[in-house]
Write a structure and sequence with these properties.
The chain is mainly alpha-helical and 373 residues long. The strands form four sheets. A three-stranded antiparallel sheet has the order 5-6-7. Strands 1-4 form a two-stranded antiparallel sheet. Strands 2-3 form a two-stranded antiparallel ribbon.
């Protein structure tokens, strides 16, 4: 058979590493550096809407320090693996050039520190890896079509194995309450009682607080699902106090010096220090997130059923549980009532039968046996 004549079919170049065809926008990708793509990425609306956008910016900065002006298309899985191996973290110090606090190897003003960083934790590296993978996924999306492959997806993320079972004991809770600043004490009361995440509380606004129904709604949640949380009496009292301090120039509930509170870590560390409690994840210390574990544990101890407790705390259940279990508002308020009864009656002493009542019970049993005969 004669072969058809005509124009020779154009062969697309292939990636030397994965064998995939290079994106039709390869020319643009070759001219785009990682640093330039990072600026574009952080300016995207879909990225700015992330609940973790502030943290994502820090992750991207760490990535830019490593990849710098490498062409986006030239980054390989081996480069992603090298980043994981080279990832270190530095102590936060003041830059001698501009005076800004810096916890990276290079300050934004260009000053480079000389001390050697310590290896970052596995969880920190995995978070950076997640940010890197998302950057490449956006680059290969139909909107940009800069790449046809995600080099970061070829490198696995080992399990960090950083699960914690630490909770605040009743004794620790009493000690922290006695020394905590008023604004921190109110914040911790909500975390200890019903377990919202730190960011969920900091972004809580007054239109989502219903003092009449004694419940509040969290809209800025980690999993993106809005949930309504009932108030225990102690939580309700906190909201009454906060209501007297609200301002007209902001809807935020938790304020510090008249402005929305951004981070309670400093106040919490100071309270732990005054209470004589070790603060931080290392060495069995106490963290803010441990109060969320404490709330979950207290809900279980109070006898609240698992599905209702998950609804209050905000833990996502499996798909089948979501389909066949419905939590009504009445169930949530009943859970809050159970939790209050648990807190008020932590130590329950069973009644002791008196000698007279004991003899009466014996007589009733004996008379019953006689009648049966």
């Amino acid at each position: 058979m004669r072969k058809k004549t005509g124009k020779r079919q154009r062969l697309e170049p292939r990636s030397p590493l994965t064998g995939q065809e290079v994106s039709p926008s390869a020319t643009k990708a070759q001219a785009l550096t990682f640093r330039e793509w990072a600026e574009v990425y952080l300016d995207l609306e879909e990225v700015k809407k992330l609940n973790s956008y502030v943290d994502r910016k820090l992750k991207v900065r760490n990535l830019v320090e490593f990849f710098r002006d490498t062409p986006l298309i030239a980054i390989t899985p081996e480069d992603a693996a090298r980043y994981r191996n080279a990832r270190v973290q530095y102590k936060r110090i003041s830059c001698p050039e501009c005076g800004e606090k810096v916890s990276r190897s290079v300050c934004h003003c260009g000053w480079e520190r000389e001390d050697v960083g310590m290896p970052a934790s596995m969880q920190t590296i995995n978070h950076d890896h997640t940010a890197l993978a998302h950057m490449f996924n956006v680059a290969k999306s139909h909107r940009f079509r800069l790449l046809l492959d995600n080099p970061a997806s070829h490198i696995g993320k080992p399990d960090a194995k950083n699960e914690r079972d630490r909770i605040a004991t009743s004794e620790e809770w009493e000690r922290i309450q006695s020394v905590a600043a008023p604004h921190l004490k109110r914040f911790l009361t909500l975390a200890y009682s019903v377990g919202p995440r730190r960011g969920e509380l900091l972004k809580l606004e007054w239109p989502d607080v219903d003092l009449k129904r004694k419940e509040f709604t969290l809209r800025h949640t980690k999993n993106g699902e809005t949930r309504t949380v009932p108030m225990t009496p102690s939580v309700y009292e906190v909201f009454l106090q906060l209501w007297t301090e609200r301002r007209l120039d902001t809807y935020r509930v938790f304020l510090y010096k008249g402005k929305p509170w951004k981070n309670p870590r400093t106040a919490f560390a100071a309270a732990c220090r005054r209470a004589g409690i070790k603060c931080g994840r290392k060495g069995g210390g106490l963290t803010l997130h441990d109060f969320r574990h404490t709330a979950s544990t207290n809900l279980r101890r109070a006898g609240v059923d698992t599905m209702t407790a998950m609804k209050i705390v905000g833990h996502k259940s499996e798909q089948m549980h979501r389909r066949y279990n419905t939590i009504e508002p009445a169930d949530l308020h009943e859970a809050a009532a159970k939790l209050h009864r648990f807190a008020a009656n932590t130590l329950i002493t069973p009644p002791v039968l008196s000698l007279v009542s004991h003899l009466q019970v014996v007589e009733i049993i004996q008379s019953g046996r006689s009648a049966a005969r």
